[in-house]
Amino acid sequence: MTDGTDRPHSPQPDPAAGSGGGYGFPQGIPDGYGGRPGAGQPGAGAPGPAQPNPYQQEPPPGQPQPGRPLGVFPPAEPFGPGSGPGSAPAPESFAPSAQPDWQAMADRSEAQQRKRRLLTVGIGSLAVVLVAAGTAFFLLKDSGEPSGTPTAAASGSGSPSPSEQSSEPPESKTPEDDSPTVAGEPNLLRDRNGRMGIALGPGASLGELSKRTEVRFKGTDDSYAQGAEAAVDVTKSFTVSTRAYNVAETGSRMAVSQGDGVSYSFELGFEVVNGKKAWVFRVQTGDKGQAATAQQVVADNVETVRNWALLTGTYDAEKKTIALWVDDRMVGQAQVSGIWAGPGPLQLGRARHHGIWSAAWDGPLDHIRVFGQALGQEQITGLKNNKLDKKTKPTHSWLI
Predict the structure, then answer these.
(1) pLDDT for residue 351 is more than 70
(2) In Å, what is the CA distance from 75 to each residue of 58, 72, 78, 83, 86?
(3) Is the entire prediction scored with pTM above 0.70?
């Protein structure tokens, strides 16, 4: 197996924020009340018509009446109803009923109104407490605290203070930045998990789709992207992965590689191997980029042209093994003596062979990730489904 010595190549450029009323009664006292005692009642405080005295004996007829001159008689008066001889004396008038105690009524009304006001205030206070309790519940729930966390029991000294409930403030949630490029740098891919941007070459461009962004290469010498530095330490365990769509059916086409100078340290992509189209993960075990010091794993029994595939290469520094995964299936593994740590940064869309750039990629790439460990089966499956566990975190990622 060779590493592409006879591949077409050509030199490439380097990348360039109150009412006054009182309880509802009128201010004064109703007419007929509050004056002198007995005012308004017949025979009290004002002279009325003379009433006959049924107990005064009349003098016999013909006898002079006291207070009258002799021989002078009063004129005869006709008998009226209920008067005259034999009529019953006029009934005595009854005194009016006792007057209401207005002050007592006012006091009772005031007490009732005070009771209503206290009831209204109590209901309002209860509503405020319930609303505050509900708000606090949702705030605590949204802050990431488990809903089933037991709370301290209430005591006679009052509710626990906020400092007693939690020693740490809840984490604030900020909107996630999904921008694929660095702010103000439309040709610099943003590292979602690190701080290493990748600059696009003149022949590379970004493609905006409905839910993602991809970087597109044309298979030409100026169609590439280059990082500012090496993304992994190849002397230790690592994983490199990308979703790839290959258009070319011939030649050597490398999606991701690392290295400069005379050779690559690793490369991941497409190649025709023994006349078969295959995915390949290849590493350089010695300097000078000699074919004898290169080791590879190939997958020539899967679809490689015009079909999206998740390509993943792993290196286990402890076991000294490399492996190639297509989607979430391991397609091959090989023993190596180690990986040569060649100089130079991470590359997209090309690789270094015998001191020159070659193996230009033709097609789009996205979901480019690098890990500082060799992922296993469960983790690779999570990588494919974009559901990695919290312990498996990339050191660098672009276009996720």
Answers:
(1) yes
(2) 15, 9, 10, 16, 20
(3) no
